[in-house]
Amino acid sequence: DIKTTAVRKGDEYVINGGKMWTTSGCQADWMCLLANTSEGPPHRNKSLICLPMNLPGIHVAKKIDKLGMRSSDTAQIFFEDVRVPSKNLIGEEGKGFTYQMLQFQEERLWGVATVLTPLEAIIQETIDYTRQRKVFDQSVLHNQVVHFRLAELATEVELLRSLLYRTVALYVEGNDVTKFASMAKLKAGRLAREVTDSCLQFWGGMGFTSEVLVSRFYR
């Protein structure tokens, strides 16, 4: 629920409020700000504004300490009577929610695409490790339950790739892919947890250390 407001005064917007979970907020030079610019219905009262981060009244309160994605800073930011030229409005006033929803299609597909290679990598690393790790004089990979589970996970990753390719093809043709993009994002999120958790088990105690990639992916 967005509470931040941008009130039009002459040739400027005066912005007040705050944002949580702002990606790269500690280092960004500009922000694409979604704010309420009128009192209308929630899906028609928001606008996107290109906001320089060096303006008076912008306070980066803190960098949020997160469980994962630690190489990407996430900030809490407050705005106090921040003045920005009205020409910094992106598109039409009141269309911000619509623009954001359309952009989410691409963001969801990007999220799916970026998870595929790491999932492939962790499966391959687990195959390599279980092949050379010996328990009772035979490699861990030699056990059928390990073989079968890794094959199953690899199959799931390929199915996710196929869904992504189909969705991207439809999107390039100009179709609304909200449903398929949402499906792909749902599957990618669940599969990221499933693959890392399953593979971690085959690393034994080593998987609980920070020395191996599977531990980082799991986190």
**Gyration radius, rounded:** 23 Å
CATH homologous group name of the largest domain: Butyryl-CoA Dehydrogenase, subunit A, domain 3
Estimated structural class? alpha+beta
Number of helices: 4
Proportion of strand residues? 25-35%
The CATH class of the largest domain, by name, is Mainly Alpha
Query: SSE order, as H and E?
Result: EEEEEEEHEEHHH
How many beta-strand runs? 9
Euclidean distance between termini CA atoms: 28 Å
Low-confidence stretches: none
Q: Biggest sheet, in brief?
A: 4 strands, antiparallel
What is the strand arrangement across the widest sheet? Answer: 1-2-6-5
The CATH topology label of the largest domain is: Butyryl-CoA Dehydrogenase, subunit A, domain 3
Percent helix, as a range, is 40-55%
Average pLDDT, all residues = 95
Number of spatially distinct domains? 2
Instruction: Give the overall shape, derived from the CA principal axes.
Output: elongated
Per CATH, the architecture of the largest domain is Up-down Bundle
Domain Acyl-CoA dehydrogenase/oxidase C-terminal: 94-219
Organism: Scopus umbretta (Hammerkop)
Keywords: FAD, Fatty acid metabolism, Flavoprotein, Lipid metabolism, Oxidoreductase
Protein name: IVD dehydrogenase
Question: Please, could you describe this protein's structure?
Answer:
With 219 residues, the chain is α+β, with helices and mostly antiparallel strands. It is built from 4 helices and 9 strands. It has 2 domains: 5-94, Butyryl-CoA Dehydrogenase, subunit A, domain 2; 97-218, Butyryl-CoA Dehydrogenase, subunit A, domain 3 (Up-down Bundle), CATH 1.20.140.10. The chain is 44% helix and 25% strand. The strands form 3 sheets. Strands 1-2-6-5 form a 4-stranded antiparallel beta sheet, with no helix packed on it. The radius of gyration is 23 Å and the shape is elongated. The chain starts with a strand and ends with a helix. Residues 2-82 form the Acyl-CoA oxidase/dehydrogenase middle domain. Pfam families: Acyl-CoA_dh_1, Acyl-CoA_dh_M. One of its GO terms (cellular component) is cytoplasm. InterPro entries: Acyl-CoA_dehydrogenase (IPR050741), Acyl-CoA_Oxase/DH_mid-dom (IPR006091), Acyl-CoA_Oxase/DH_mid-dom_sf (IPR046373), AcylCo_DH-like_C (IPR036250), AcylCo_DH/oxidase_C (IPR009075), AcylCoA_DH/oxidase_NM_dom_sf (IPR009100).
